[in-house]
């Protein structure tokens, strides 16, 4: 076995084993790193989505104001955008909290496995 394939096999060794029957998962160091990177990427994309939710209704209101010759749709649009953005932030924070709890649980299981392994 070459050194490269040996390193690959060591990197993919299960860190946490959930031996509770069917559907059990093994979590590796690479899986934890992937989960953390994915969580950061998801947080960034959700923040961008909330900013879009905040601005698009105001821009549409401005478009309606120029189309109809009025001056209040922009205000209505931005107020509506703020309400939708606050709702979006609450939704995003619930999802981020659930993801964070899952990641903490995986790290806790990994630490308890490392504490129990022979040295």
Topology:
Layout: H1 3-11, E1 16-17, E2 26-27, H2 29-68, H3 73-116
Antiparallel strand pairs: 1-2
Helix pairs in contact: 2-3
Name the helicity range: over 70%
The SSE order reads: HEEHH
* Rg calc: 24 Å
Q: What structural class is derived from the secondary structure elements?
A: mainly alpha
Give the N-to-C terminal Cα separation: 25 Å
Strand content: under 5%
Shape: rod-shaped
- Low-pLDDT runs of 5+ residues are 1-24
If helices are DSSP runs of H or I spanning 4 or more residues, what is the number of helices?
3
Largest beta-sheet details: 2 strands, antiparallel
Mean pLDDT: 75
- Tell me the number of strands: 2
Q: Please give the order of strands in the largest beta sheet.
A: 1-2
Structural features:
2 strands, mainly alpha, rod-shaped, single chain, two-stranded antiparallel ribbon, 119 residues, disordered N terminus
Word description of this protein:
The structure is a single chain. Strands 1-2 form a two-stranded antiparallel sheet. The protein has helices spanning 3-11, 29-68, 73-116, and strands at residues 16-17, 26-27. It is mostly helical and 119 residues long. The model is unreliable at 1-24 (pLDDT under 50). The protein contains 3 helices and 2 strands.
Briefly, what is this?
With 119 residues, the chain is mainly α.
């Amino acid at each position: 076995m070459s050194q490269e394939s040996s390193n690959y096999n060591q990197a993919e060794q299960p860190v946490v084993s959930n031996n509770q029957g069917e559907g059990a998962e093994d979590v590796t160091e690479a899986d934890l790193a992937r989960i953390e990177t994915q969580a950061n990427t998801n947080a960034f994309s959700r923040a961008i989505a909330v900013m879009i939710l905040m601005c698009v209704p105001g821009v549409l209101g401005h478009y309606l104001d120029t189309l109809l010759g009025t001056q209040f749709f922009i205000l209505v649009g931005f107020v509506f955008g703020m309400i939708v953005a606050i709702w979006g932030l609450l939704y995003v924070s619930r999802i981020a909290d659930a993801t964070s709890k899952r990641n903490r649980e995986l790290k806790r299981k990994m630490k308890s496995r490392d504490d129990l392994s022979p040295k």
